[in-house]
Amino acid sequence: MISAILILLPLITGAVSFAIRSSEAARRLSFFSALITLGVAIGALLPSNASILALDLPWLPVMGSRFALSMDGMSKMLCLLTALSFPVIFLASFRQSFRMPGAFYGWMLLSQAGLMGVFLAADALLFYFFWELALIPVYFLCSTWGGERRIAVTIKFFLYTFIGSLLMLAGIIYLSFQMPTTSFSISDITQAAVNSPNNTLLFFLFFIAFAIKMPVFPLHTWQPEAYEESPSPVTMVMSGVMVKMGIYAVIRWLLPLFPSVAEQYASIIIAFAVAGMLYASLIAMQQNNLRRLIAYSSIAHIGLMAAALFTSHAGATQGVMLQMFSHGVNVIGLWILADAIEKITGTRQLNEMGGLARKAPRLAILLVVMGLANVALPLTNAFVGEFMMFNGLFHFNWVVAAAAGISIILAAVYTLRMIEKVLYGSPANSDLPIADLSPNITWALVVLVALVLIGGIYPQPLIDLTKDTVEALTLKK
Amino acid sequence: MNAIIFSAVWGVVMMFGGLIAKNKTTVTYLAIAGLLVLTGVNLLHSCGSWVIKVDTHETLHFDSMGLYFNTIAFVSTLLYVLLSGKDIERAGVHVAEYYALIFFVLCGVSILTSFNGLLMLFLGIEIMSIPLYILTGADKKNLKSNEASLKYFLMGSFSTGIMLMGIALIYGATGNFGINIGPNSAAGTGLGFRPSFLEVGGLLLLFVAMSFKVSAAPFHFWTPDVYDGAPSVFTSFMATIVKSAGFYAFIKLMDVRTAILGDSWLIVLPLVIFSTLLIGNITAVFQQSVKRMLAYSSIAQAGFMLFALYGTSVMSKEGLILYAFSYSIATIGLFAILIRLKDYSLDGFNGLAAQHPMVAFSAAVFLLSLAGIPLTAGFFAKYYMLAAAVKAGGILWLVIAAVLLAAVSVYYYFRVIQSMYFKTGTPEWTSPAGKSFAWTLLLLAALLIYAGLFPTAVLKFIYF
User: What is the per-residue burial (b if ≥16 Cβ within 10 Å, else e) of A279-312?
Assistant: First the structure.
């Protein structure tokens, strides 16, 4: 029941929002809708029995597909992340005005509904539905409100992900017919996959879809451009929550469905993921464009998670859980800051910035905290997760762990370089009227900083929350 | 039977109606009335009441699926006339004749959904095709229209010849025109019986002729030129209702007979499907004119509909009905907008969303449905087709190729959405889009979305 509310609430308010013309009203409606969703998502964390959380209704009886939603620890955590990030994003962009505000906030809420659905679906066809439903709003958001090259960039992004999801659909259709009666429920699909003869091919049909979404090197080329050209609230959604769809899907669908194939190809996939980490880190070091720097840094972080997933090490999987949440919080914080910096200085180029620390002290403090969280310094939320993932990688193969370790050092290099270029040195353009962060952005960031610190000091609640998913996954092996 | 007789009669009525009615709009109303009655009598037949009985010696056989297909075809035609009636009036001077020809086409359609013998198949195809040759050339003073008409006629007669040859060979082998395979082969296919050379040869010729009618590669070459040259209103009709009916007949024909072809069938069919999808999709990418793009995309869509030939299961027939429904509705809607625009190129759509939000929204839904995006009927249509293929043989490589080419189709369909929504401009109209036009389009879009959520709602009427 609660899971249905999580989807319906943004869906309905999103649809209503399209009819609103006033910017103020649309903004308020979406903010309050997002707040209520957050309340429901927090409510879902309270101990209760599964029947209150889940939902199972007949949808397409002829095809054997049901409108089935379920909520385990990982779903709860990602729903919480989704529910948390939207109010923060809305709060941070409170002062911005958009053309056709009703449509803008409407699409945003629809994408939230799609994301929730992805994290909740317990039926393969329904999962595919929500997977697309999360994508289409983003297509319209980026193409309408994006930067100069938005149309070309967005269609590239859309085609990339769409090809992936269609391959997944082919896999789903194939699997659903491997049983005496057609069914899409997660347990039946798992059964079919284990017994299916074309295991390897099917594995890659699913894996490519998820790898594009994450993205894993070499399927990442859509990402930096899309992040750069999208309007900042959308970039925050994409990098903070959407990339988690890929990781979530690997844990929920890919690994339980094809455990043996996953093990067989683990070393190749991990090699690609780690190579991608190094590659992205090296590029991030060379970047002069603030947004691209954050985009590549995000690819590097995701690469680590992808590598850790395939180590089949329980600790590493637990680390991925933690890191999914932490990365969401951190990267949204970084984007909010990047956006604020761009507004203040009027540029994205790092060599045209400098000296902001003296003029905008609040921004400076928050940027340093977020930057250090990005480097995964102890006491920040990313540290615990990364540590666990490294542990897993080390158990898998120390060479891989060492290579991944280099990329963590590189992360410190490019993040600190970015902080230095933005905050210190002499102002490149001294006659700009410089203002500090506006209160709404400050508050949004304070919330995120609090989460960074809580997650760094006491991550146990998150571990407890997601333990059941990790255990279920380890048991399957 | 109701539909066959009534459509033929009303075609004649329309012809003479042109003499009496001086006003073109009156003629359109007469046609709308005719379509309503036609749908009505067909529904009566589906319910089994008030049926005109003519003894056809089992050369025609009516089943609920065929009758339901009729209903879809008639309703689509009705929607088509409601949307584009004004444009039919503008296509030339002989409005009443155009409507008469459309009714004759519908007569052919109703024969094709109920034929039970090869002779009736041939008659249905001819009754459906000959009016189309004339409609293609309706724009008499336009050279392109003339060229298209002549090309269509010549190619069409050629394929008819091949079809007739095939029927003759099969008759020679089996001694009857029945659609069901001869007793020898029916009993023998399971026991390693080899059908006679004449029978296989005849069936292959029939396959070629039908592939031509539904523009499957490599028999598709006429399609772009004819669709582009014909007056846009009639292209819309040809590409949707006529094409779907051709497919229905194709599947009805091949349903029982694939057993005769045996394993070689499983080599021929995937190749035809793959080349149709490939040629249609890849060529559509390079088109600058939306009309031509839709012509190539109709080839690509035909590739998907060919999947229905795979299965002898109920699923493939249901899938074809769903496909015909979603594809016809979306294409009719798109063409209705296209016809009214001055500029058929992509730039002609620039800024449509700002000018007519409702029209642009409906067009976007049509395009999304054609591309097979979830939440629209097009998704489940494609889903059924792929599922039928997987169920029948499990040729995974073809399914993967099909979905990849479907992704290509997203590129060219979305270019129109990009023009409408993300580019600025003011589209110029030959006849401005009024309120009722926009609402009718919105109704079509709502239908597609509803069927995209509950596809079974469309299908359950087959069995009512």
Answer: bbbbbbbebeebbbbbbbbbbbbbbbbbbbbbbb
